[in-house]
Design a protein that fits this description.
The complex is a heterodimer of chains A (571) and B (446). In chain A, 35% of the residues lie in helices and 15% in strands. By secondary structure, chain A is α+β, with helices and mostly antiparallel strands. A 6-stranded mixed sheet of chain A has the order 2-3-7-4-6-5, with helices on both faces. In chain A, strands 10-11-9-12-8-13 form a 6-stranded mixed sheet, with helices on both faces. The radius of gyration of chain A is 25 Å and the shape is globular. With 446 residues, chain B is α+β, with helices and mostly antiparallel strands. Chain B has 2 domains: 213 residues, Metalloenzyme, LuxS/M16 peptidase-like (Cytochrome Bc1 Complex, Chain A, domain 1); 180 residues, Metalloenzyme, LuxS/M16 peptidase-like (Cytochrome Bc1 Complex, Chain A, domain 1, 2-Layer Sandwich). Chain B is built from 16 helices and 11 strands. In chain B, the strands form 2 sheets. Chain B has a 6-stranded mixed sheet, sandwiched between helices. Chain B has a 5-stranded mixed sheet with strand order 7-11-8-10-9, with helices on both faces. The longest helix of chain B is centred in the first third of the chain and has 20 residues. The termini of chain B are far apart. The chains are: A alpha+beta (571), B alpha+beta (446). At the A-B interface, α1, β1, α4, α6 and α14 of A face α1, α2, α3, β4 and α4 of B. β1 of chain A pairs antiparallel with β4 of chain B, so a sheet runs across the interface.
């Protein structure tokens, strides 16, 4: 049915909630979109904006000309029909008014008032326990549907990749469900699918995870399988070879994705050549080819340990039963001493500059403005999240209203914070219709500079706060989302009542706070711009924008001409 | 295990709903869930590509876009309004047989959702003009380029649709339509389309979530009650013809990185007796690591990076499809014999009881998972509306599951034997187009 969904349903928005990939693709661990950044499985690309930052692209067009904003909002008293500037020259056909279908009903003139009881959302507060092995356990009971989600999260991932083996943490995560010491790969898969359970595994920038969703009645059996996968992966050479080929194929396919290429380039600039986060997501063909089973097993033995783990459960099970079942399933799990990572400092940013990767076959460009921020627990996190909503967190944010609605350069642009345990990034980005790439870069810059002054209107602040608060319940609707969010909270070092208290903290953000954090942290004059697209002929035009040095190089996977390129000028 | 699931499902309080009709024929389905302070509003119109006529491909979908361009009492910028009330997952979608419009709103803003949806139902034409149509024609044309022509393997999927449903079948050009025909859509045609298909008696409104049913009913009557009934909509009935013989085509794909083999056959219609067998056979062949295609092609021989199988059952026809993407360094010539052998085995020897049971359990569990969400794509509101739209019974879920439980290995084998013959098979070989080289003289190596 996966494929079918994509074929037969066409959505007004850019994506129908994400079409499922083919069988092999592990579902990423779900994480709440707007709250703490999702260090989700497979989201190696650090600067990627959180999913919800994606404005709901829609039937509303990229206007062909500066759009006359029709009606200033729902409260505006309606005229006889909404009038656009363009109606003046509408064709004769339209001039003959049709008989109205409907009676006049004055109550329709105004947006209806809200119902008396304003909704109150109490975010779930997990009950915390500890297993004998030292693993932390968080449980949120939800007896709505007979399903349970279990998220096992280890607090290291790509950050633990050795410099000579980029892609190792992700390779390990991909291998743990490919056979255990007592269950060959095929048998393991069969047992999981026999229970109708969903198991997915992955590694992010600073965590690794195994995530299970199962029916309540099969929880004991499903937990036994999960525990086996987490503790006893076998890394048999034939399985390793098989998965290696799949991962190499994924690296090939990545070359077709402008967004993935932009993310890699942004990571390279932000984190540099000697930091594991600066390497391409998934590793390189060379590094993948060199990783041997013993190395996978050693990484697993070192980092998939209970004393560095949190197990978050959400669903149709009581706290006591959950803990009892976990103790049983993980009875033989032993803590091990965890080596302290010594990561190099981040490099100095190149300053304001344009790094363009030429992809001649593309019809769009990805434009990313990226910068470094702070860690997730920083007190400026909530105010800056609020501030960002006005810049690029919503469909109606400044970036989208300018680049999409005013200029028609794009189907949607956005900006977002990705905050981690010890670092954070800011990204303003979007897919741009190829011929508009250079003017779009100029508009990104002008909006960012304006925003960095921190001048935000009362109305903007109110709708930013409202949107953040209103978005919370949806982000915590399913068991997968809740368990993933609880693990995130621990992984990021946030307090367990983060979701409970964040509503109050959002409410307290003032105009002065926004001004302070925006002018302190948003620094377009120091931030690099990454472009991936058909920009081979655009070097001069980009230089004319005077945004610092411009580099144009072929994108990975683009056939390079046999003759060496002529020396580039202008640097 | 299956019996256990059946019990649980019957006990699930979330399947409780109340259904009634307004005087104008609008079907209303209410289902309470007070877990989160939100409500999903989901309006399905029983109109899709199936209702189009030759020369008007893409019409239903183009129309869906216009529903977001403002109506008499709503601002033109639909998404600004939705954002301002804290709505989420507000969207619309068009498929072969139906079109829907939906949003999740904070519980206290439920009347706003009714105001919005009733205004689009009642007052769209008052403000629809040539300018809006022109803009949406371009947006939709661009959407086709983006989602079909600029997406790896998108063109092959589109081609498949045209092979099974050649013009003048209403499904030709799939749902998205032919760009020239989209561009030719006139305002008169659009108005006629709206008057014909967007009457309240051709729609069902599902509301799921945190609301007081008494208040909801009053509000629904207030906003939808005065909209006049539309003309009767005759269900389209254009049969799907048989292919005259086997089809084999090569599709060059500029964006694909690896070759892909697609095999397809004419299939079955929605909610027919054979539909569950088609779905479960697809599951046995291509879903999960235990599936036959995955085991043989990805696991054992490592010729493929991914497999899938699906049975598209629509109101006017359908097709069964097997898709295999080559692993890096392999080609279609290596994939095809293996796929053929697997299909031949299923036809000759059938599948095992275990395989059928596993597929059944997964279908059931996935239907439960859909119930976790009140709205959005495929959530509880969609489940209720779907059964109502096609069967007139929002509570069909338990009986639907029973249909799947009734399937046996023999049913699957006869489905395979009846439908997956070589004599009318479609084979599409998707191959990456040769790469253009980068323009010289621009780069500076870093």
């Amino acid at each position: 049915m996966k494929l079918i969904l994509r074929i037969i349903i066409i959505c007004a928005a850019a994506g129908c909630g994400g079409s499922k990939r083919e069988t092999k693709a592990a579902a990423p661990v779900l994480a709440p979109p707007q709250a703490p950044p999702a260090d989700a499985a497979q989201s190696h690309a650090a600067p990627a904006p959180p999913p919800a930052a994606q404005p709901p692209a829609s039937a509303v067009p990229p206007a062909q000309q500066p759009a006359t904003k029709v009606g200033q909002g729902p409260q505006e008293p309606p005229e006889t029909g909404t009038v656009t500037a363009a109606q003046a020259n509408r064709p004769a056909e339209n001039a003959v008014p049709e008989k109205p279908l409907m009676p006049e009903e004055s109550f329709r003139d105004q947006q209806p008032p809200a119902l008396p009881a304003p909704p109150r959302f109490e975010a779930p507060l997990p009950v915390q326990r500890k297993l004998k092995s030292g693993a932390r356990v968080l449980v949120v009971e939800n007896h709505q549907v007979p399903l349970v989600a279990i998220d096992v999260r280890f607090l290291h991932g790509v950050d633990a990749d050795p410099l000579d083996a980029p892609g190792l943490a992700e390779f390990v995560a991909d291998m743990v469900d490919e056979g255990t010491k007592s269950r060959p790969a095929a048998k393991l898969a069969e047992e999981i699918e026999d229970l109708a359970a969903h198991l997915s595994t992955g590694a992010g920038l600073e965590s690794s995870s195994a995530h299970l969703n199962c029916l309540t009645e099969t929880l004991p059996q499903a937990l036994a399988l999960l525990a086996d996968v987490v503790q006893n992966p076998a890394f048999r050479p034939p399985d390793v070879e098989r998965v290696r080929v799949l991962r190499l194929t994924q690296l090939e396919q990545k070359k077709a994705s402008l967004g993935a290429l932009a993310a890699d380039e942004a990571a390279r600039i932000l984190y540099g050549p000697v930091h594991p986060w600066g390497k391409p997501s998934g590793g390189t063909p060379e590094s993948l080819a060199a990783i041997q089973p013993a190395r996978l097993a050693a990484f697993h033995a070192r980092y998939w340990v209970p004393n560095d783990a949190v197990i978050s459960i959400s669903g149709d099970v009581t706290v006591d039963v959950a803990v009892k079942l976990l103790e049983k399933a993980f009875a033989h799990w032993k803590p091990r001493r965890l080596p302290k990572l010594r990561l190099p400092p981040f490099p100095r940013l190149p300053g304001r500059s344009v790094e363009a990767l030429d992809k001649p076959s593309a019809t769009q460009s990805q434009v990313w403005v990226v910068g470094r921020l702070f860690k997730a627990t920083d007190p400026d996190a909530v105010p800056l999240r609020v501030a960002n909503m006005t810049l690029g967190g919503l469909f109606t944010s400044r970036l989208n209203m300018n680049l999409r609605e005013k200029h028609g350069y794009t189907y949607g642009v956005h900006s977002g914070l990705a905050l981690l345990r010890d670092a954070g990034t800011f990204t303003a980005s979007g897919g741009i219709i190829a011929k508009n790439t250079v003017p779009a870069v100029a508009e990104f810059e002008s909006e960012l500079q304006k925003f960095s002054s921190g001048e935000v209107s009362e109305a903007e602040l109110a709708s930013a706060k409202e949107a953040l608060v209103r978005g919370l319940p949806s982000a915590l609707e399913t068991n997968d989302a809740v368990s993933g969010a609880m693990s995130n909270v621990v992984s990021l070092g946030l307090p367990l009542d983060y979701y409970r208290t964040v509503v109050g903290r959002i409410g307290k953000v003032s105009l002065a706070d926004v001004k302070r954090v925006a002018s302190k942290w948003i620094r377009p004059l120091a931030w690099p711009i990454v472009i991936v697209g058909p920009v081979g002929q655009s070097k001069q035009a980009l230089e004319d924008l005077k945004l610092g040095p411009v580099t144009v190089a072929p994108a990975p996977g683009t056939a390079v001409p046999a003759k060496p390129a002529s020396p580039a000028g202008g640097l | 295990m299956l019996i256990l699931l059946a019990t649980l499902l019957a006990a699930d309080p979330q399947l409780k709903f109340e259904k009634y009709q307004l005087g104008n024929g609008l079907t209303v389905i209410l289902s309470e869930d007070h877990r989160l302070p939100q409500a999903a509003v989901d309006l399905w119109y029983h109109v899709g590509a199936a209702n189009q006529t030759a020369g008007h491909s893409g019409f239903a979908h183009l129309f869906e876009h216009l529903m977001f361009s403002g109506s008499r009492h709503l601002p033109a910028h639909f998404y600004e309004l939705m954002e301002s009330i804290g709505a989420s997952q507000d969207n619309g979608s068009t498929s072969f047989d139906r079109t829907n419009y939906f949003e999740i709103v904070p519980a206290d803003k439920l009347p706003v959702a009714f105001w919005v949806e009733s205004d689009r139902m009642g007052y769209l034409l008052d403000v629809l003009d040539e300018q809006k149509l022109r803009i949406q024609r371009d947006v939709v044309s661009n959407e086709k380029r983006q989602n079909t022509e600029n997406r790896p393997y998108g063109m092959a999927q589109q081609r498949l649709c045209d092979i099974f449903f050649p013009k003048p079948h209403p499904y030709y050009e799939c749902v998205i339509g032919d760009i020239a025909e989209i561009q030719a859509a006139s305002l008169q045609e659009i108005r006629a389309f709206f008057r014909q298909f967007y009457g309240p008696q051709n729609a069902s409104l599902a509301v799921v979530g945190d609301f007081d049913p008494q208040v909801a009913k009053e509000q629904i009557e207030k906003y939808f009650g005065s909209i006049p009934r539309g003309p009767e909509v005759k269900p389209p009935d254009v049969p799907q013809t048989d292919l005259p013989g086997p089809v084999k085509e090569q599709v060059e794909d500029k964006l694909a990185e690896e070759p892909r083999l697609i095999l397809a056959w004419k299939g079955v219609r929605r909610f027919t007796d054979q539909e569950p067998a088609g779905d479960l056979l697809a599951d046995v062949l291509g879903s999960g690591k235990t599936s036959r295609l995955y085991k043989a092609l990805v696991f054992e021989r490592q010729l493929a990076s991914g497999v899938s199988a699906s049975s598209a059952a629509l109101s006017l026809g359908g097709w069964f499809q097997v898709t295999v993407t080559a692993a890096h360094g392999h080609d279609i010539g290596e994939l095809l014999p293996v796929v053929q052998q697997i299909l031949a085995e299923v036809k000759a020897k059938g599948v095992t009881q275990e395989e059928v049971e596993r597929a059944q359990r997964n279908v059931i569990a996935n239907k439960l998972r859909a119930l976790e969400r009140i709205g959005g794509f495929g959530g509880r509101a969609d489940v209720l509306d779907e059964y109502q739209t096609y069967l007139g019974d929002p509570g069909f879920l338990p009986r639907d599951l029973a249909r799947y439980r009734a399937v046996t290995p023999q049913t699957l084998q006869s489905f395979a034997a009846q439908f997956l013959g070589d004599e009318r098979r479609v084979e599409l070989d998707v191959v990456p187009a040769p790469k253009k080289s980068a323009a010289a003289g621009e780069g500076s190596a870093k």
